[in-house]
């Protein structure tokens, strides 16, 4: 796909999604709307990797503070994650719509976070724990480009024509 509206976006299935065994159920939601998997791997990143992801790219300390940042890194270090790159028409916004807002308590039923998680920021802060919200997804196309480059080498991202692309042109 070569349209400027066709984007790639990063999705990370967080340790809680992997440990609960619901990756496949969540993944099917992305595939059902026509997003194409162009890269995937299971990985147990280092704290430095997460620091670059959440602060150097995502500016989490600026947005939520040092305490929330530290709790998030502790949470992410609890187990392996599955990182994927999806491609599709306006993929960044579509994925964000499918997963719902970052705070699970605020997520509508029908979104991934609304259906599979329930914690509030207030409770997580009170308990000094990271928010188990199942998924990380790029916030905008520029962030997606930076995150994909951080998680995947160019040789790990595949170009191919999906079946629906062959028959819808």
* Overall structural domain count: 1
What does the radius of gyration come to?
Answer: 16 Å
CATH architecture: 2-Layer Sandwich
Question: On the 0-100 scale, what is the average pLDDT?
Answer: 93
**Name given to the CATH homologous superfamily:** Nucleoside diphosphate kinase-like domain
Could you tell me how far the N terminus lies from the C terminus, measured between alpha carbons in angstroms?
11 Å
Strands ordered across the widest β-sheet: 2-3-1-4
Biggest pleated-sheet summary: 4 strands, antiparallel
Number of helices: 10
CATH topology grouping: Alpha-Beta Plaits
Strand/helix succession? EHHEHHHEHHHEHH
- Low-pLDDT ranges: none
Shape: globular
Structural category is alpha+beta
User: What's the CATH class label?
Assistant: Alpha Beta
Query: How much of the residues is beta strand, in percent?
Result: 15-25%
| Strands, total number | 4
Helix content: 40-55%
């Amino acid at each position: 796909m070569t349209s400027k509206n066709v984007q790639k976006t990063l999705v990370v299935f967080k340790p809680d999604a992997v440990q609960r065994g619901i990756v496949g159920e969540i993944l099917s939601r992305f595939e059902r709307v026509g997003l194409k998997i162009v890269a995937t791997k299971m990985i147990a990143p280092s704290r430095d990797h997460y620091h670059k992801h959440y602060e150097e790219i995502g500016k989490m300390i600026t947005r939520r503070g040092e305490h929330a940042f530290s709790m998030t890194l502790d949470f992410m270090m609890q187990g392996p994650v599955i990182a994927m790159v999806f491609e599709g028409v306006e993929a960044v916004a579509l994925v964000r719509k499918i997963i719902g807002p970052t705070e699970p308590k605020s997520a509508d039923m029908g979104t991934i976070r609304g259906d599979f998680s329930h914690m509030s920021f207030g409770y997580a802060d009170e308990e000094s724990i990271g928010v188990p919200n199942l998924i990380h997804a790029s916030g905008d196309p520029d962030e997606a480009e930076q995150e994909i480059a951080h998680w995947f080498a160019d040789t790990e991202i595949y170009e191919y024509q999906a079946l629906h692309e062959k028959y819808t042109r």
